[in-house]
Design goal:
two-stranded antiparallel sheet, 162 residues, zinc, Herpes Virus-1, TRAIP_ubiq-protein_ligase, mainly alpha, 8% strand, E3 ubiquitin-protein ligase TRAIP, single chain, 2 helices
Length: 162
């Protein structure tokens, strides 16, 4: 329930001076004082008896949620739930993206392991081929040396036969 001043049409707020007329109606003290400067009747019921104002003091409620109506609460709830639902959708999408990225990462790791094994095999094959090439180069050099020796021996033999 919201109580208010019928003179200014504003709700009574905590720590605002409030006064009551003898007929029991309440107003802001400043509003009713100004009213009585112009008129000698109650602003609400037009009571015209002796107008002595009674100053009222309200204890501020520790639980102000009772003053909020259901529509305001529902509006506040909806306003709070909307960004939450957006964040939940965003979080769900991000989790899906993380799952996809993990799958891609796992596939790439397997591919890297496979390529590293192939690379190691090719390195061993290359090393083996280099060794074979060295053996063949040595054999070729020996073959050239033997040919040269043969040609030299033939030349000597030929010169001896003459």
């Amino acid at each position: 329930m919201h109580a208010g001043c019928v003179i200014c049409d504003e709700v009574f707020m905590p720590n605002i001076e409030v006064s009551a007329t003898p007929c029991g109606h309440i107003f802001h003290t400043t509003c009713v004082s100004q009213w009585f400067e112009r008129s000698a009747t109650c602003p609400q019921c037009r009571f015209s008896g002796k107008m002595e104002l009674l100053r009222l003091y309200f204890a501020e409620s520790k639980n102000e949620n009772n003053q909020v109506d259901a529509d305001t609460l529902q509006c506040n709830l909806d306003n709070a739930q909307f960004p939450v639902s957006l964040k939940e959708k965003e979080l769900k999408k991000l989790k899906e993206d993380v799952t996809k990225q993990k799958e891609i990462s796992d596939k790439l790791r397997k591919e890297v392991i496979k390529l590293e094994k192939e690379h190691a095999l090719q390195e061993r094959q290359l090393s083996s081929m280099k060794a074979q090439l060295q053996v063949l180069s040595d054999a070729q050099q020996r073959s050239k040396d033997l040919r040269l020796e043969r040609d030299t021996a033939r030349a000597k033999l030929s010169s001896l036969q003459e």
